[in-house]
Amino acid sequence: MTVAQERALVIGASLAGLRGAESLRRAGFTGPVTIVGAEPHAPYDRPPLSKHVLTGEVPADATTLPNLTALDADWRLGVAATTLDRHNRVVGLATGEALAYDRLLIATGTRAREWPDAAQGRLAGVFTLRNRDDAAALRRALTAGPSRVLVVGGGFIGCEVAASCRALGLPVTLVETGPTPLARVLGQNLGAVVAAMHEGLGVVIRSGTKVERLEDDGSGHVTGARLDDGSTVAASVVVVALGAVRNTEWLAGSGLSFDTDGVDCDANGHAVDADGRPDPRIAAAGDVARFPHPLYDGRRVALEHWGHAVAQAEHAGRLLAGTRPGAAYAELPAFWSSQGGITIKSVGLTEGADGLVIAQGDPKQGRFLAVYGRAGRCIAAVSFDCARWLPAYAEQIRAGSPFPPIRGATDQGALTILSPGFPEQRRPEVSR
Amino acid sequence: MPDHRSDQAGLQPEPAPARAARPLRVSVDLNRCQAYAQCCYAAPDHFVLHGREALYYDPAPDAAARLEIERARIACPVQAIHVEDAGSHGR
After folding, report:
1. What angle do the packed helices A306-320 and A15-26 form, to 10 degrees?
2. Which of A44, A103, A140, B33 has its CA 20 to 30 A from that of A189?
């Protein structure tokens, strides 16, 4: 087979990179596979980093992902890819080396968005949380007995960090510019449920407030923050949880279409150039890949979800191995988060929702499932501690069933259509 | 999908040298997990339910726990548990 002589290169030694390489092998690719990772670590699992690693239940270095297929790969860890030359089919590395490819998987993921003021962001006691080393460093700081932890940003990572700090008994304040935590993803209606849940854990929530500056003790250690209402929060540890930036800079000059929100792919998963022409030798997967989602009218999305990284990488691996895709990649988006013992799970995308119903359970009792609708169709469902209901609603969402869904169950009250309450200025094309 | 080649081998005791080897590697697809808690009965030292459905699992159990971990993997009604096939030495 000619395939045997071809070389595959995976850029990103991540969940997506690992599962993509495995998929290449399972699809029959027998040529050399090289996996390049900017971090010195073998691929590891990120979800525990903001939860059990911070609470000390799992050491940061215990998160190495299992291999699920024999890979026989050449690993280049601790070296970043810096250039892509599609004409000569070469990826340049930070060491100056050049690696040739015939099939290329782009899985460079994201990095934490830094605090906008670099000098304040460099203060001792200021952390971001994206990588294993970040989690290990933050864990050390939390065990040193901080006076208070200030979490800047009420997205999923911010909420999980706040809950983990409370599990350690540490005083925590969470500052969020939006009306509630998680308002961008869930809307403020459910965001208020999340806020109440965190207040129940003992987190001090400061919503609708912005951190103006981080303050220091004059010798390089953070002492807290000044907020835009003039108040201050004293804290010896600050966790900046302002979302992620996609690692696409290395694609400059490649001719591929990309920006800070991702590298563009066609419906099959091939990376496209500035004119929208797919490069049949290149696929992208995971957080970095922006693609038109067929379940959402072809809207281009880049999803920072664990399950998506796996499914899209498996799809990309088959694609690069030469398997003709039977259909466009159309996995239903799904994620989970656990905060203070509560598990939040979601399927679909809430973006653009114009209605919300509590379809099962009761938010007051902490166990419920909400369905989001748009223009009379179900587009997303979110469960709080009742995940077993979710697959039934996932089917409704996949099918674009009428909203509100599944009426008339015997244990169901009347469904009242509520406003999800999304704040203005949602960033399009980026979920979570 | 998990690699099933280890199903039979995993039920046999590990040979002695493997006990000193690196720990097992475990991950759980928590999208799939629906808190049936069968893993918590099969391997109570390595899988624990916090609250109603937040699963804590040990991602790096000692190799000596292989039998228990395999039992947990097989017991999962939604097959959400992935264990590295010790025979795959994939890297």
Report:
1. 40
2. B33
List chain A domain ranges.
2-111+245-320, 114-242, 341-431
Does this model's pTM top 0.90? My answer is yes
With an 8 Å Cβ cutoff, is A64 touching chain B? yes
Span A2-111+245-320 CATH architecture: 3-Layer(bba) Sandwich (3.50)
CATH numbers and ranges of domains, chain B: 24-83 (3.30.70.20)
What is the pLDDT at residue A409?
66
Q: Indicate yes or no: CB of B23 within 8 angstroms of CB of A62.
A: yes
The rounded distance, in Å, linking the Cα atoms of A43 and A229 is 43
CB spacing of A307 vs B51 below 8 angstroms = no
Q: Does A336 touch chain B (CB under 8 A)?
A: yes
Dump pLDDT digits (tens) for A236-272.
Answer: 999 999 999 999 999 999 999 999 999 999 999 999 9
Low-confidence ranges of chain A (pLDDT < 70): 1-4, 406-414, 425-432
B3/A contact by beta carbon, under 8 A: yes
pLDDT confidence of residue A327: 85
Instruction: Yes or no: say if A35 and A107 are a contact pair by the CB < 8 Å rule.
Output: no
pLDDT at A325: 79
- Give CA–CA dist A314/A316, Å, rounded: 5
* CATH class, range A341-431: alpha beta
| CATH 3.50.50.60, domain A114-242, yes or no | yes
Do the two domains A114-242 and A341-431 of this chain adopt the same fold? no
How far apart, in whole angstroms, are the C-alpha atoms of residue A32 and residue A267? 27
Closest CA to A14 of A251, A279, A312, A271: A312
All residue ranges of chain B with pLDDT < 70 are: 1-21, 85-91
| B62 vs A: CB within 8 A | no
Using the Cβ of A382 and the Cβ atoms of chain B, whether some distance falls under 8 Å is answered with no
Q: Which of B52, B57, B89 best probes binding to A when mutated, by most A CB atoms within 10 angstroms?
A: B52
Q: Give pLDDT, residue A407.
A: 67
- State residue A411's pLDDT score: 65
CA B63 to chain centre: 11
